[in-house]
Design brief:
Blueprint: E1 7-15, E2 19-23, E3 29-33, E4 46-53, E5 59-62, E6 73-81, E7 85-89, E8 96-99, E9 112-120, E10 125-129, E11 148-156, E12 160-165, E13 169-174, E14 187-195, E15 201-204, H1 213-226, E16 230-231, H2 239-246, H3 250-262, E17 266-269, E18 272-275
Parallel strand pairs: 13-15
Antiparallel strand pairs: 1-2, 1-4, 2-3, 4-5, 6-7, 6-9, 7-8, 9-10, 11-12, 11-14, 12-13, 14-15, 16-18, 17-18
Helix pairs in contact: 1-3
Length: 279
């Protein structure tokens, strides 16, 4: 069965004036318009295409790669708004529709919005929704503590930044764990820091505990190397200075320099840290 909003691998059935007709081997057919027809092909070849509805609400295939597919989240630009809703640029000829009822905040032309793409059961059309939380579910988690996860930055809160975890769950990165500029729609790697009793997920943008020592130590070594073997930081430095210069918490910093000092890679005094062999 040919699936709307997804990539389908279909067989070339016949060549016609408007384009190639492709089939799924189950009596399903869809047109690949001439603009997408490859230069060389033979009847019976298999093509991977994206299928959606054209302006006449007919299924149509495209070799273009959309910015979002059914069941995914993505940051999209709003091209226009009319009395029915907003129309978003998703990389295809026909824009992706986001009705007013699916807008967390009223969209404006030129704005960028994180949306979820789904197939509306009533209209059988692909639509977008910026009410992303309702497509996330933490009741049955598919992640565990200390697991590395894929993140999409969702929206800010008073406590930090909400993130979409593995395209399935809602998580939170607390303000104290954010050491670099992040924006809505950014795709990052993170670590599950804590799973709360209500299945809420605390997410870290760096590794946790002893897992964090090695990457941070490597980062400090690189900064030392880039600064002639010296940085004016030590275990009495303020958290603000450490965050500004190294983009990490003071706790992580102290663990990392402790590891480096124990391995006799650095020396530490009241002026700062020196890479051995550079003093």
């Amino acid at each position: 069965m040919i699936q709307l909003g997804e990539y389908n691998t279909l067989e070339i059935l016949r060549d016609t004036d408007p384009g190639l007709f492709l089939g799924d081997g189950e009596d399903g057919e869809v047109l690949l318009p001439n603009r997408y027809v490859p230069e060389k092909f033979e009847i019976g070849d298999m093509l991977e295409v994206f299928v959606y509805l054209d302006n006449e609400e007919r299924p149509v295939a495209s070799s273009d790669k959309p910015l979002i597919t059914k069941g995914e989240f993505s940051l999209l630009r709003c091209n226009q708004v009319n009395k029915y809703g907003a129309f978003l640029d998703w990389g295809l000829v026909k824009e992706l529709f986001c009705p007013f009822k699916e807008q967390a905040f009223k969209m404006k032309a030129g704005g960028w919005y994180l949306v979820y793409c789904y197939l509306d059961e009533d209209t059988e059309r692909l639509v977008a929704s910026s009410k992303t939380n309702r497509f996330l579910d933490n009741r049955e988690l598919t992640v565990s503590k200390f697991e590395e996860v894929d993140l999409i930055v969702s929206h800010p809160s008073e406590m930090g930044m909400n993130v979409i975890v593995n395209n399935k769950h809602l998580g939170l990165v607390f303000k104290d764990d954010i050491f670099k500029d992040i924006s809505i729609g950014d795709r990052l790697k993170g670590i599950v820091k804590k799973i709360r009793h209500d299945n809420k997920l605390d997410i870290s943008l760096s590794q946790i505990g002893y897992r964090n020592i090695e990457p941070n130590a490597q980062h400090i070594l690189k900064v030392l190397s880039d600064n002639s073997g010296f940085i004016p930081l030590h275990d009495k430095s303020s958290p603000e200075d450490i965050k500004e210069q190294l983009q990490m918490s003071k706790k992580s910093f102290k663990k990392a320099i402790g590891s480096l000092y124990k391995d006799r890679v650095i020396t530490i005094d009241t002026n700062g840290i020196t890479l051995k062999g550079k003093d």
